[in-house]
Each structure stands twice: as structure tokens, then as C-alpha cells.
Hints:
CATH topology of the largest domain: Naphthalene 1,2-dioxygenase Alpha Subunit, Chain A, domain 1
CATH architecture of the largest domain: Alpha-Beta Complex
Bound molecules: FE2/S2 (inorganic) cluster, fe (iii) ion
Structural class: alpha+beta
Family: Belongs to the bacterial ring-hydroxylating dioxygenase alpha subunit family.
Largest sheet: 9 strands, antiparallel
InterPro entries: Rieske_2Fe-2S (IPR017941), Rieske_2Fe-2S_sf (IPR036922), Ring_hydroxy_dOase_asu_C_dom (IPR015879), Rng_hydr_dOase-A (IPR001663)
Number of strands: 23
Keywords: 2Fe-2S, Iron, Iron-sulfur, Metal-binding, Oxidoreductase
Number of helices: 13
Pfam families: Rieske (PF00355), Ring_hydroxyl_A (PF00848)
Distance between the termini: 20 Å
Protein name: (2Fe-2S)-binding protein
Amino acid sequence: EAQDVAWREYVREDRVHRSLYTDERVFNEEMVKVFGHTWVYLAHESQLPEPNSFVSTKLGLRPIIVTRDRRGGLHAVFNRCAHRAATVCREETGVAKSFQCPYHGWTFKNTGELVGAPWPQGYGPDFDKSEFGLGKVTRVDSYRGFIFGTLSEAAPPLADYLGEARPWLDYWIDRAPEGEVVVRSAAHRMGYRGNWKLAFDNAGDGYHPSFSHRSLLEMASRMGDSKDMSYFGKTPDDGPMKVYSLGNGHSVIDQRPNFDGPGSIWANQRPQPGREKFEELIRAKYPEDADRLLDISAGGQINLSIFPNLLIIGNQIQVIEPLSVDRTQLTWNATSIGGVPEEVNTMRMRTQEDFPAFGEPDDQANFEEVQRGLAVTEEEWVLMNRGLNVDGWQTIDENGVIVTAVTDEIHMRGYYEEWLRLMNGEPA
Length: 428
Ligand code: FES
Ligand code: FE
């Protein structure tokens, strides 16, 4: 079902073609060649805390169940009955040794094998249960709790695919003193009428916040923030914040240089109600460890984008789920961490309320308006040219990581190179 096109015509150095956001054929091909051929984030291990835990999720459009077997090993099977394709597991999460299909009652082990069908004497002598298990995601791997799956045998090992994103993921994970990050069970879900890539375009975009999130930032100022806000000032390009293009479609905005001392972008911008009292309490109760605990109680300070569907934004994990060429669902998972007093996690949770409540709707309004604009067939191109060939912005290190001004659209140019590779049938 490959399209007879040269994808390079659609992804140029400084622009991409509108049809990448509007053409159903492109979308269908992405579900095969992008979501089918590269590592896709599926779930976090903390969502599968015990033997026989499971989580329902998706790999592109394919419904998937991520499971632990009785010994704790991880699997991912298609949530599609081998009989007539019904959804075998309709629960979002739980503990189950097996799944019984609600349609005609076939039962599968949580590792996929068919173990029983009702009234088995009704099948002919050739019926072989071993042929009718749930299909498997052939490769499942976990990097420090983050579970990914791919259907490709040609994809590199997961750790290599994460590549230069790994030190950033490590930084984020190691903010938990014992490296234990816990995804809180209740997810925050929001859908928008627009292509899935609009969310990815935006997550590494340091150009839009001063405009899109102005009301949030103004609210922060009104609430008496006194810290450095230079990122949102007149010249963010000279500001201390940078965007890093990490290769393989990944990127990160590092917000840390903008803030001095313990705290975070959100704690600094919008003092949490009760934060001062909280600080007093922590300093009194844990004098030795107060700075570190206060730091951890605040936001995560980086926006890390891992192609194609995982975004780490502050303390949250966001997953992009494509539904159709012009519909997408975003799932926000709040996280807490192990090895700290519970009041630290409670405060940390509060820092996670601001952005989904006040920031994300700004972004989603943009996504929907962009999708409307893309209906103008006479205008073919979307630009991603800010920062391209600007003198003095970009520096490149020995690992090929490019560091540049925070408003550089390099994150978008970077992931489209990966997109192009995959759509051309090359391995991730
Ligand atoms: Fe599952 Fe028939 S579709 S048992
Ligand atoms: Fe935004």
C-alpha cells in the first residue's frame, strides 16, 4: 500500500507539505511505517506493579495489552481475538492471568496463548489451539521503567534508539532519589481535532510560549513572581534556555539555566498556594536535605520529546495517540517519586496541575486552528525555518547534538528527518 511518491518532495529543508497533516493515505502509511517500524512508548513499569498486571494501550492504531507474566516478564500482545477480532480486554488496567473474549468466550493467557474455547468438541480434528494465540508485539523492551515496543526486527536496540535522549531521561529519572518514578493511576485525557504531529511539532517549540501561553504567564506575574523571567522577555534567543536536537527525532528544551536555586519553571512562575509554608516546614523537618527536597517537590525543568509519541513535560509523561488523520488523543500521566516524604510528593503533584489546566488548552486551540488552516489547498507549505542558517546560533558537539537558541525550529526539522527515513522504509 506504499504511495508512489518521493517523500523528499514533501519534506524540504525549511518546510513541509500540508498533505502530511491532511491526507488519509499519508496517515495510513505512517501507522505502518512510523508506528509499525520504530520504537513506540507503550507504558511505564509502575503501571504494572505486580505479576499478572496489565495495561491496555495502543501501538499506532493497534490496540495492545501490555502484560507482566507470573514471573514478572514483560509482554505486549494485540488486543484482538484470534477468532473474529473482538477486543479481548476491555479494561484499562488490572491484574489477570488470562483474558476471556467477551464475544464467544475464547480464553487467552496473559502471554497470548489460547488456552480454551467453549464447547471444544465443536471444532474439527485439525483445530490446533497453538495456532490461534493473540498476536505479539515482537520486540518489547524497557529503559529504566519506560516500556517501548516495536514490530520491526530491523530497528536498533532500544537504548541505541534513545541515543542522546538517554542522558536527559536519566537526569529526569535520577531526580527521584532512588530512581523510582511512579505513574499515578488516574490519567488526564484530552482530545483535539488535528493531526498527531501537531503535538510533536509543539512540544519542542520554544518559540510559541510567549504568545500562546501569555495569559498563564501574566497570571504568574500577577501572583507576585520575582524570579528571572527572561525567557519570556523580549529576547529569548539570547536567553539562557536552549533547545537541543538529539538525533533520531528526539529533542529537549532545557529550562534549568533560567532558574537559580531550588525550584522550577512552574514553582517560579506561579507560586503554589501554601508553598512558603511548605518551604518552612521542609526546612524545619529536614534541615540537612531541605534544598534537595524542595527541588524535587517542584517541576521537572525539561521538556523532552522522544519520537514519535512520548513527551516528558515537567513532572509529567504525555503520550500522543493518533486516532485518525485529523483526530488525536493526548494522555497526561502525573508522576510521583519514591524515597521522599509523602508531603514532598503532595506538593509535587500540585505543580502538575497548572500546565494541563492553563497551558494545554492554549496549545490544543492552536492545533485545531492549524488543522483548519491546512484546509486551504492553495497554500501548500508549512514553514519550519526559524533558526535555519542563522549565524552564531547553533553549535554541535562531538556526539552530533546540536544546541541552539530556544526559538529555533530545529526540533521540527530534526524529527522530520527521522520521519523521512522511516517513510522511505529505512530502519529507525
Ligand atoms: Fe473472540 Fe469470538 S471474537 S471469541
Ligand atoms: Fe505550549
